[in-house]
Design goal:
This protein is an alpha+beta fold and about 80 residues long. About 30% of the residues lie in helices and about 25% in strands. The chain has a 5-stranded mixed sheet with strand order 3-2-1-4-5. The longest helix has 14 residues.
C-alpha cells in the first residue's frame, strides 16, 4: 500500500501493509495524539511498520494524508 503524505514539512511517500480506510483513519488519529505534524511520518512508520520511499509524482498511490488539514483522501485514476 502506498500513501502520500502532504505537509508543509515536505511531501513524502510511504509504503507498508494494507489498511482499509477506517483503520488508516484510526492509525492517523492515534499517531497525531502523540506527535505533531512535523514528526508524523517518522512516528507513523515506526508504529505501523511502514517505510519511506523516494518521492515521485509518477507513482500511483492508494491514499493521501493531508497533514495540514488532517484529511484522508483516496485519489481517482482514469
Amino acid at each position: 500500500m502506498l500513501i502520500e503524505i502532504e505537509s508543509v514539512y515536505g511531501d513524502k511517500i510511504i509504503h507498508g501493509r494494507h489498511l482499509d480506510m477506517n483503520k488508516l483513519k484510526s492509525a492517523i488519529d492515534e499517531t497525531l495524539k502523540t506527535v505533531n505534524e512535523e514528526n508524523f511520518v517518522c512516528a507513523f512508520c515506526s508504529l505501523y511498520q511502514y517505510e519511506e520511499i523516494a518521492y515521485s509524482d509518477d507513482i500511483r498511490i492508494d491514499y493521501t494524508i493531508d497533514l495540514d488539514t488532517h484529511l484522508l483522501l483516496k485519489p481517482k485514476y482514469e
